[in-house]
Structure formats: C-alpha cells, structure tokens
Amino acid sequence: xxxxxxxxxxxxxxxxxxxxxxxxxxxxxxxxxxxxxxxxxxxxxxxxxxxxxxxxxxxxxxxxxxxxxxxxxxxxxxxxxxxxxxxxxxxxxxxxxxxxxxxxxxxxxxxxxxxxxxxxxxxxxxxxxxxxxxxxxxxxxxxxxxxxxxxxxxxxxxxxxxxxxxxxxxxxxxxxxxxxxxxxxxxxxxxxxxxxxxxxxxxxxxxxxxxxxxxxxxxxxxxxxxxxxxxxxxxxxxxxxxxxxxxxxxxxxxxxxxxxxxxxxxxxxxxxxxxxxxxxxxxxxxxxxxxxxxxxxxxxxxxxxxxxxxxxxxxxxxxxxxxxxxxxxxxxxxxxxxxxxxxxxxxxxxxxxxxxxxxxxxxxxxxxxxxxxxxxxxxxxxxxxxxxxxxxxxxxxxxxxxxxxxxxxxxxxxxxxxxxxxxxxxxxxxxxxxxxxxxxxxxxx
Length: 445
What we know:
By secondary structure, this protein is an alpha/beta fold. It has two domains: 6-22 and 240-436, UDP-n-acetylglucosamine1-carboxyvinyl-transferase, Chain, CATH 3.65.10; 25-226, Alpha-beta prism (UDP-n-acetylglucosamine1-carboxyvinyl-transferase, Chain). 29% of the residues lie in helices and 26% in strands. It is built from 13 helices and 24 strands. It has helices spanning 25-36, 51-62, 104-114, 135-144, 177-188, 205-212, 243-255, 274-282, 319-322, 326-332, 354-364, 395-405, 427-434, and strands spanning 6-9, 14-20, 41-45, 66-70, 80-84, 98-99, 120-124, 147-150, 158-161, 169-170, 193-197, 217-220, 223-227, 236-238, 260-267, 285-294, 297-305, 311-314, 338-341, 368-372, 375-379, 387-390, 412-415, 435-436. The strands form six sheets. A five-stranded mixed β-sheet has the order 16-17-15-2-24. The chain has a four-stranded mixed β-sheet with strand order 4-5-3-14, with helices on one face. Strands 6-7-9-8 form a four-stranded mixed β-sheet. The mean pLDDT is 95.
C-alpha cells in the first residue's frame, strides 16, 4: 500500500517485539550492478524493496541486462530478482538517459560501471538528486580515461563518454564508500591494477561482494586493490536485513523506558556496526549475535533494550561509519542526555540539507537543538510537544521525526512522509506493530 504524504504519529509508552527489516540497500545496489556485468544468471533473494534500489534495476535493464521477478521460496520474503548479465564491458548503449531517481548510490556507482564502455551515457535524477554534487566521482573517472561532464556546480545530469580505462592509485580526500565503489567498478574493467587508499574506513560491501561474484580483491588496512580484466560469474545470493533500517527501532528502544526490540536476520558487517557501539555509549543494553554468514556478510540477531540515558558525543572520525544513522541519533537527544555531532558536513549534501532540516524539524516539535556548520547538538530540556514537521522529501528525516514523535506529549504530523518509500515502504506499519500506546491509536494517514 502506498505511504500517504502526511502521517500522524502518536506518542508511545515503549516499543517491543521481534521483526525483520527490509533487505540492505547498500548490498542490493552492489549485487545488481555486479550481476549486470557478470557472465550468466544471478538470483538475488531479499532484494531491498524501496524506490532507490528499483532505480538501479531500471538503469541496468536500460543497459541491456534482463531483469525478472519470481515468487520467493519463503512466502514472507519479497520476490526474487533474477538478472541475466552481459559480461564485463558487455553493456549496451542506452536509448535514453539513465534515470537514477532519488538514488545517489545508483548514480555514483553506475558511473563507474558505464565509464568502461565505449558509448555515451547520461545519468539524470529527480529534483533532489539533481542538487547533489558529483565532483568526487568525476575526478578519478576522468583520471582513468573517461570523459565526464556535469551541470553547474558539478551537479547532475552527468554525461560520460566511456572507453578503454587504465588503472590508477586513488586517495580520496573525503571518505566515501560510494566513490570508492565507483572507482573499483571502473577498475575491474580497466587495464592494470586499481588501488583505492581510504583516509578513513567506510562500509566494505563492495570488497565483500566482488569475491562472491568471482573477482580477486586485496585488502590491507585501508588499501583496496584489484586487477582489471577479471571476469565475473552469476551467483545466487541473499541480502541481509538493513542495519540502517534497524537503527530506527534500535534508537526507539534505547530511548523509551521498558522497551525491548529484537531484529532478526540483520546484517552485522563490522563496517556498519559502529551504531551498536554508539548506542551502548548512550546507555542502551544491546546483544548482537552473529548466527550465519551470507556471501561474506555476517548476519544475525540484534536485541536492544532501554538502559540509562547519557550524553553522547560523535567525533569526526566516527562519522563515516554512522553517516546514515546520524538523523535518528540526533532524535535520540530529545529523550534524555544530549547528542553532539561534529565533522558531518557531508549531511548538507544528502537528499536534503540534513543538518538544517533535522534541527528545524526537532525545534518545531519543541526540542532544544542547535545547528552547527558541520554538525549539531540536541539536548533534552523538556518533553517534546509534537506539532507539524516536514521531511523535505528525505526518507531518513521522515523516519527520524517519527521516532522523536514517540516521546512527545502530543501527536506529530509529518508532511512528506511518503519519502520512506525510498528505502523502507513498510516503516509506518512496523512502527504501529512495535509501539505500545496503551490502547491509543498509532501512526495513521
């Protein structure tokens, strides 16, 4: 069922229950892109259901990969995604611009994929994506031999004239898993070796996914290298639950007294699990249990209970590993203690200016919140009153405001709530399942 543009969220006494969250967005993107240039057929189970990952499928289909969906073996799982790949450097010229929708992940990583192909590709997006700078992929791809141009301010549309690429050694100034992945995807199809040396560790799903599809990758600390010209083979893979989606329930459980939430079959990749350490510092009681490994990705159970509420400081060196969770961690500060974040200027060029819009929304609900150049501080001075906030078409803001609303004294009206369809279409249904409101109504359109 489509999510309404306006959703009202009522306060809750606690959150409790057991659930699974949708498939990991980051991993889903990467599996689809690798499957598109693999030899043979890949079958992806638990592919992320949101609009962002659908954009990636639309783009690889426009480049000649055959996409189909069939019923999953488990009735509760989303349909299987089947991709018949075209082999390394085997994509065909698209007949129209490649529409990446709202997905910066699609645009940045797809750029690396098409840069090795001898045709012209134009990557476009919606109004939000068209405001996001792409200069960090333009430099390395041009250095490898592609001709890359963009609009004013290096913003989309991005036009790429691909061809024979050469491997490079690339040391980005700003840590970014998407930029790293774009360079590695281009390097896989280039001559020679490509090496990325990260200034700080970022999520490593690409380094884990490449060997799953048959490529050899060398990892030594923050140095990642691969040899160009390797062939990939289609695989049957399964995507773990998205810990960035689980973060909303983890924060809600950490925030509300008496809460106890367990998320099953969730990805517990160490490069994404910094959230767990952050919530423990705040005072949450957390048990993370690895139960299996799916294609190099640890998977397990995450149980979060309310504990003490303390002051939380997130330093710049921690930001890359919790960048997606920062909005909801900011909301945590409205329940008790304080949350202070610095070194997170990248939040200003996400789907929205997440610093300005998060603070504006929390203030509208009654929070004591301060915007800073590269971060923010949120302090609890009194219980939130509720009110009307606007998510600015940003899925993570919509969900962060919904979590903050659980601790308010009155209802909160979230405008632009339909943005959750980008990553977590069933978010408000799951919210109503977990929220104990003592018999009162929950989130409703």
